[in-house]
Amino acid sequence: MLISRMTCSLAKLWVSGPVILLLSLLVTFSPVSEAKTHKVKVSIEGTSDTLGDNILAHIGKLNEEQLEQPQLLQQQLEKAVVSAARAIGYYHSQFNYRIDKHKHKLMLTVWPGPRAVFVDPILEIHGDAAKIQAFTKAQKRSKLKAGKPLSHRQYDAYKQHLLSLADDYGFFDAKFTKSEFRVDREAGTGQPVLIFESGQRYRFGEVNYAGSMLDDELLEQLIPFKRGDLVSRDVLLEVNRNLLDTNYFEEVNIERDLVRGTHTLNLGVLLQDSNKSRYEVGVGYSTDYGTRLRFGWDKSLVNNKGHSVSFNSEWSKPKKELEASYNIPWHHPLNKYIKLSTGYQVKDVEDSETELLTSAISFYDKHDSGWVFGYSWEFDLENYRQGDEDVNHAAYMLPGFNLGHSEIPENRDPARGHRFDSYFRGSSRALGAEVAFLKGYVSYRQLMPLINHKTLLLLRGELGAIETDNILKVPVSRRFFAGGDNSIRGYAYESVSERDSKGVIVGGSYLNTFSAELSYRVLKNWRIATFADTGRAYTNNDEPFSTGVGFGVRWLSPIGQIRVDLAHPLDDPDTQVMLHIAMGPPL
């Protein structure tokens, strides 16, 4: 009997099994329709923008499912409105709301009530920080003043500001001995009580280096403080910046070690040397040179003395140039160094052809004020020809002096800045020159806003003079020429100069150029500009000025500013307009 029953059960299972399996598969693989949920737009009435934005931030995102749960929605809205309102001093706020399901919208009406105010703030700073202007200024400019609208954010922001200042100035033990916000909701007042104890200011201690092959003596020149100097954040940032600016390192990490017993800050400088060679390949275009190809190579760290080497070349139709240089730090890798260089240049512009081979030793000295002094001794071998005359050969030594200063913000559209460059070069028969000469040159550029950042004025001027008995005996590479993208627009590159009796451009003993450009930003990455350039390169004082006027556009591209100008030369009726294209910063 038991066997009969088991056989019957197995038979039923055999019949119903496929049915169950089929139903399971249908359930597993049949598509499930999901209800689409829409985001709900929340609008607020009856409040200021500040409170409204704060309430929206507290509410967050809502969807239609939440609108179907009135109790939970009421609790969520009440929590958001109360928290947001109290944060900026509204302690008696009320609200109601209505829902438009068809438009997926929730309209919230808020009555914030009276706003509480600060009363009798107690803000005290004790310790050495009380003598530092940054702390006293923070105290005076605090928004926690009696009668001002109450805000928990401003209270928290002031506390955080004092703590940040403490870290900036090396008060690493600073703390609040009392930090209270006494709020009387019924009276609508709040009294902030903050007693700040800065403690003793830390001083710099030892600096230990690891990971670099450079001599410690060289690295120490990059540290802008002495042991025992007071700690400041600006000095710590300068340490990091100096190390990175050398291009010696792939990575720089500075670890701080506080010795609380002696209030000393020791630094551990972890460095990873840059052993790689860097290559630069580029293509550019300007009206002066046409298409220009560039290749560069450098190795920023050659040995433990911090020597570096580089090679640069440029190739364009009018000018081919090669240069190699070797830099040797002199006490300070960034501010004092010796440069050994050699170069070769071939130039064919207008009526002049030159071939110049030069070697030089230069010393550069940058001062804390930003002025850069340069002293050089150069040896030149030059072959040059003008017009159809014979090739001239010159070999001479050239001592020189440079002086420069610049402040140029590193962005695509600087609003202000300046650049000053000057140099003096000279040679004599005793140094191999065919004729004695002394050349001086000064240029200055100033960029400034007019009214606001959108409207900018760029002023530029150049002055140059060569003192000599015979300018035609001075090598062509040392004479003055004007005209071109960065000189007098409306004229070809180095086409403005005195001419001889055959009409050949020979270059001048003196140079004067002046330019004024007004630009206006019309879109985020576009400016329009109008300008006037004038100048001359001359030997005889009766040589007229050449003037060009025009307009252009400036594209603030990701790779830098690209300038396109149309200029008309006022003293050349045969030339209606000339196109000028250039790349690079305005200064």
Quick tags:
16-stranded antiparallel sheet, alpha+beta, 27 strands
Folded structure, characterized:
By secondary structure, the chain is an alpha+beta fold. Helix content is 18%, strand content 47%. The chain contains 8 helices and 27 strands. The protein has helices at 2-29, 49-59, 64-67, 70-87, 133-140, 152-168, 216-220, 233-245; strands at 39-45, 62-63, 94-100, 105-111, 117-118, 122-126, 175-184, 189-197, 203-210, 249-259, 264-273, 278-286, 290-299, 308-315, 319-330, 332-349, 352-366, 372-386, 392-407, 417-427, 437-450, 452-468, 510-523, 526-538, 546-557, 560-569, 578-583. The strands form 4 sheets. It has a 16-stranded antiparallel β-sheet with strand order 12-13-14-15-16-17-18-19-20-21-22-23-24-25-26-27, with no helix packed on it. The chain has a 4-stranded mixed β-sheet with strand order 2-1-4-3. β25 and β26 (560-569) form a beta hairpin. The protein is extended.
How would you summarize this macromolecular structure in one to three sentences?
With 587 residues, the chain is of the alpha+beta class.
Assembly category: single chain
Q: Which structural class do you get from the secondary structure elements?
A: alpha+beta
- What global shape is seen? extended
Q: What is the number of beta strands?
A: 27
Query: Spatial order of the strands in the main sheet?
Result: 12-13-14-15-16-17-18-19-20-21-22-23-24-25-26-27
- Cα-to-Cα separation, first versus last residue: 108 Å
Mean pLDDT: 90
Strand fraction equals over 45%
